[in-house]
Amino acid sequence: MNNNNSEKRILEKTLDDLSFVRSAPKIGLVILSIFYLASYFAMPFLVNSHFAVDYNGTTIGIDSFAGVLSSIFNIFAIFLTLYYGDVGFSISTVVLLLNIPMIISNIMRNHNLGNISGVFTTLVTILTLIVIYINNKKIERYQDKLMKQAVTDILTGLPNRFACAELVEDLIKKNQQFTMLSINLNGFNDINDTMGFDIGNEVLMEISSKWKLIADMEVSGTLDFIARLGGDEFALVIRKYRNQNELMNTVNMYRDVLGYKLLIQDYEIQVSASYGYVEFPSGAKDVDSIFSYSNKAMLRAKESKEDNAIMCFDEEMLIDRHVTEIENEIKAALQNNTIFYSLQPQFDMNHKLRGFEALARMKDKKGNIISPGEFIPIAEKEGLIDKVDLVVFKKAAKFVGKLIQESGSDFTLSINISVKHLMKKHFLDELKDILDASDLPPHNLEIEITESIMIESVEKAFKCIGDLKAMGIQIAIDDFGTGYSSLSYLFNFPATMLKVDKSFIDKMNNSDSSRKYVATIISLGHIMGIDVLAEGVESDEQLETLRSIGCDYIQGYIWGKPLNDMEAREVILNTVNE
Questions:
Q1: Would you say 181 and 235 are in contact if contact means Cβ atoms under 8 Å apart?
Q2: Mean pLDDT, to the nearest integer, of 437-444?
Q3: Least enclosed by CB within 10 Å: which of 111, 180, 192, 481?
Q4: Cis peptide before 281 (omega within 30 of 0)
Q5: 3-state SS of 297-329?
Q6: What CATH number does the domain containing 335 carry?
């Protein structure tokens, strides 16, 4: 079917974009192969040549350069294997194997056993190529597994949020008309709570299967793309409709799926949903607004309390009084310097303190704590996050710098820095000023950044991170696994720590696949020579699982809640006195 092929092309393109192997250009293979073969055919000429030159009374035979050419020959073989996988390995190995009889023939012809070392050198080179090839294959297997999980929802087999975002971005670039429909199942948590997660998962799979069948068979008459965004949220992208009637006919076809009861393990289950949609280009102009506006329309439909209610996005939906109130609270806190921090301890698996992460905290005008999950996204959206970062950084660095001097202990202060702040022109100058003012040694500082830094500007990101590393500052990739950066960048990224997002730790013991996913991330970190820290560890069961799959560090309520200055000081002093 056309739609199925279209969907496959989107997923293949997405996998291509994530690919690490594709970075080596084919022209490089051709050039390397030419030089490689040239050095191979030049070798007998050099070895058997009697040509010589006189240099300051010293006769130098051209055959003396054979060793140099042999080294270059082997270097070409290593490069071919390292960067061009199966093809490069095959070319290198075949030519090296052909080189052995040539060396033996030369020994027999010239009766010179001195060249026998060339046979052993060639065999060692072949062995080296085999080791490189096997190691590359191991990395590729991990990469393939992560790439597939990056674009596919494991439970339903539908494309995930990232794949959907890739499609939307591609359609926007091509200026193609489409409609984005956000779908949220009503009362789905009640199904999980009363019937169990297994039943809930089967409900999701059954609905997904029916929706995917409509999209793949093109029975709607339009070109549809259905994806699971997470939990009980789905997205439907509709193209190739001529008018509003055709659009609504397609939408109603998907709504009708929920008009019948589902038979799951002898249970008859009635499910309804709320729908919100926005059109491109009339209703939204970019990827973020497409997702945001369709979601706002869906939430407005959900507020109606009607089964299978549907709403079209309207600009009035953008007016959110609560968000405005939080934004004003942030601005007031910045102006009054009332933003503060908590320090959450990090430990190795033997309960030895590694350091603390500084977490931003804020109170409203009445003195009530505002959840970071509430004010941080608003600060990011309204362009205030860099100012929040700076306040937390200054205050935490001053306290920790003084505590290190007083206690003589050596521990790490981890600071979250937004991509926007990190990419600012004068960020490094700000950083140096704070370190100087706080007496915090650079090697005791760890800056946490998210994978999204790769999207901003790869070249600029690598330069900035390189400058930080040159100062002795540690780099951690925060919330690893939730982003969608290219693995080729991550393998070259100069990080010292991967932090596994709490959402993966929460689900880790729910299923074997979830546990394996966390284990894969830990293995990937170790392959890259990077330590791994798990965030949000709250139970002994989680701790034991992480210990069994080789995690290096943990952070969470099981061993340490966020602390104020006095409590953190006590932890450090107790550690010093142990």
A1: yes
A2: 94
A3: 111
A4: yes
A5: HHHHHHHCCCCCCEEECCHHHHCCHHHHHHHHH
A6: 3.20.20.450
DSSP string, 127-192: HHHHHHHHHHHHHHHHHHHHHHHHHB-TTT-SB-HHHHHHHHHHHHHTT--EEEEEEEETTHHHHH
pLDDT (average), residues 87-109: 73
Tell me how far CA of residue 113 lies from CA of 106, 107, 119, 122, in angstroms: 10, 6, 11, 16
* Half-sphere exposure of residue 540: CA atoms within 13 angstroms, side-chain side: 0
Assigned domain for 231 exists: yes
Residue 7 lies in a domain: no
Question: Which of 319, 335, 361 is the C-terminal boundary of a domain?
Answer: 319
Strand ranges for 18-163 from DSSP E: 52-55, 58-61
Q: At a CB cut-off of 8 Å and minimum separation 6, what does 255 contact? A: 273, 275, 308, 310
Please give the model's pTM, rounded to 2 decimal places. Answer: 0.50
Percent of the chain with pLDDT over 90: 45
Q: Is residue 378 part of a domain?
A: yes
Q: Which residues pair with 477 in a beta bridge?
A: 449, 498
Positive/negative CA dihedral, 392, 395, 398, 399: negative
Cα dist from 493 to 461, 528, 574, whole Å = 10, 9, 36
Q: Are residues 348 and 247 in the same domain?
A: no
Whether 315 and 332 map to the same domain: the answer is no
For residues 354-381, average pLDDT: 91
In a domain, 177, yes or no: yes
**374: Cα separation from own chain's centroid:** 23
Q: Which residue has 């780099």 as its token pair? A: 475
Both tokens of residue 309?
Answer: 């209610």
Query: Taking the chain, what is the end-to-end CA distance rounded to the nearest angstrom?
Result: 69
186 and 263 share a domain? yes
Range(s) of the domain holding residue 184: 161-319
Do both 331 and 366 map to the same domain? yes
**Which three-class secondary structure state does DSSP give residue 235?**
strand
Report the domain count for the chain: 3
Q: Tell me which H or E stretch contains 423.
A: none
Q: What 3-state DSSP class applies to 479?
A: strand
Are residues 343 and 486 located together in one domain of the fold? yes
Clarify whether residues 439 and 573 are in a common domain. yes
CA–CA distance from 104 to each of 97, 108, 112, 329 (Å)? 12, 6, 10, 82
88 backbone φψ class: left, alpha, beta (φ>0; ψ -120 to 50) = alpha
